[in-house]
Amino acid sequence: MSQVVFAARTRADTGSGNSKRLRRSGRIPAVIYGRKSGVVSIDLDTRDFTNGLKGISESTIVKVDVGGQIHEAFVKDTQRDIKDGSILHVDFYEIEGNTLLRAHVSIHTHGNPVGVREGGILETPLHDIEVECLPGDLPERLDVDIAELKVNMSIHVRDLVLGSGVKLISNPDQVVALVKFAKAEAAPAAEDAAAAEGAAAETAGAAAPAPDAKSDKSDKSDKADKK
Prior knowledge:
Blueprint: E1 5-10, H1 16-24, E2 27-34, E3 38-45, H2 46-53, E4 61-66, E5 69-80, E6 87-94, E7 101-110, H3 114-117, E8 120-123, E9 128-133, E10 141-145, E11 154-156, E12 167-168, E13 175-181, H4 182-207, H5 211-226
Parallel strand pairs: 1-4, 2-6, 7-10
Antiparallel strand pairs: 1-3, 2-3, 4-5, 5-6, 7-9, 8-13, 9-12, 11-13
């Protein structure tokens, strides 16, 4: 995948009134936060940015061309209108090529697990991990094949294949994907219900008077009347 490039213009007026005028004219106000360059206020073409944003994750490094000056950065935040979802503002975080960075890399699972075909249920509780590396070593995403997962099998963070220059920050024991057997979970519940019914029956039996005791009382009363 080729690196996405956004063409931008510098923006001198950063007031809310100017931001509204930009949006009406088909532009998006934005800011680049950099360690060396400080804060650079820019604006982007709405259509170009919206199209380029498709498929970009938090770990995707893009280029922002501001009048011929290139800034390599992450798209850190996109503020949207709660009514129509339109983009109101964008925050970029500039990176430096020789400086270690920490970023979250998204996890994409693919394949139909063997365990699911056997009646199990697939769970994917983790969707990204945190890593540390140089910008050039940062993976855009991690593809994980789960086709061979059987019932009661799982894939952990420690099983993921990272590049030699990528250091894992997330907990290696976290589960990325697992297959559970639904029937195994239902069995204990059925046993508990049966045990509860048995206990209820015993209680009811203990509370009821014994038929023989009642008959003995009747016999004693008859003998007393005859006397």
